[in-house]
Amino acid sequence: MSKQILILPGDGIGPEIMTEAVKVLELANDKFALDFELSFDVIGGAAIDKHGVPLADETLARARAADAVLLGAVGGPKWDTIERDIRPERGLLKIRAQLGLFGNLRPAILYPQLAEASSLKAEIVAGLDILIVRELTGGIYFGAPRGVRELENGERQAYDTLPYSESEIRRIARVGFDMARVRGKKLCSVDKANVLASSQLWREIVEQVAKDYPDVELSHMYVDNAAMQLVRAPKQFDVIVTDNLFGDILSDEASMLTGSIGMLPSASLDANNKGMYEPCHGSAPDIAGKGIANPLATILSVSMMLRYSFNQLVAADAIEKAVSLVLDQGLRTGDIWSSGCAKVGTQEMGDAVVAALRNL
Ligand code: IPM
Ligand code: MG
After folding, report:
1. Is 238 in the pocket of ligand 1 (CB under 6 A)?
2. Ligand number, closest to the Cα atom of 244
3. Are 123 and 115 in contact (CB under 8 A)?
4. Domains in the chain: ranges and CATH
5. Does residue 223 have its Cβ closer than 6 Å to ligand 1?
6. Among the options 252, 270, 317, 351, which is catalytic?
7. pLDDT digit string (tens) for 225-266?
8. 248 C-alpha to center of ligand 1: Å?
9. What is the pLDDT of residues 44-65, one digit of tens each?
10. Gap from CA of 105 to ligand 2 centroid (Å)
11. Ramachandran region of residue 10, left (φ > 0), alpha (ψ -120 to 50) or beta?
12. Angle 244-257/223-232 helices, nearest 10 degrees?
């Protein structure tokens, strides 16, 4: 039976980058006889415009029924002023939570061709290969209570809650250890245990889980130090496991080591490796519609989908190889451009990857 893939382009640059990723996916589908069936739906601002909510029930049902979901990006100034509970981002958080996608894998790999595009010195980032494992369905993103209340003096006070249960910590810690085991066997758990109660429990549970992984070297680091170490000596890290908010922040930081956030794919997996795949970057409204966005993070997300959801390792490797060949050719979108390279737009970049993949 064919495998169903639901495509949710979203807002801003989402549709542009998704067009290119879908071209690559369709070619891979033919070339490797993958038997994928693609369908499309809306999320985020596009869903607000169509249904009045950022994730319609029927879209969620289709996502549940699909074998994998490929998502572009959500949000934009058009919807910035609407009520907090139905903002575009809520649609993204809802689909992550409802599908139980607690394990978010964000690899930060430096393509050697892009060493010049990194904001750090080439020798500090050469050969960089870090995996950030971010907890994606808990913590302060979802904690209750949250809101705005009025204090006795009439002043408003806003508040959020950062809860983590033992089982939530245990399952994400396992993802971290499992990933470290098949990579460099080093796991760094990042928390703020010197201040936060949730981080103290986090550290305790990670220590417990470590007993099942004697072959993995575990270290702990406070998040402020981790932010510093990532730019000081990023190659000390192999796998980082951390909570939802810290993972959001550190993955943006790590992306710049690789040249651009436009290069970073991600996989969000449930307990059975069903997944949603999306670039780590946002909808970039400032460049939307200009045809200059980098489609490579989304194309590389297709590769992660083939790898993690469908175990199609040959096809996944081929897409990564095609991206690398295009970088060898000196083609660069604006975000990864450096002098001596050819500046190309979104579509040209997508076409180049398609051509390279076809010729492999
Ligand atoms: C990300 C994004 C999202 C997040 C936003 C758009 C809600 O920044 O995927 O990193 O904070 O998780
Ligand atoms: Mg983010």
Report:
1. no
2. 1
3. no
4. 1-101+270-360 (3.40.718.10), 103-257 (3.40.718.10)
5. no
6. 252
7. 999 999 999 999 999 999 999 999 999 999 889 888 899 999
8. 7
9. 999 999 999 999 999 999 999 9
10. 13
11. left
12. 10
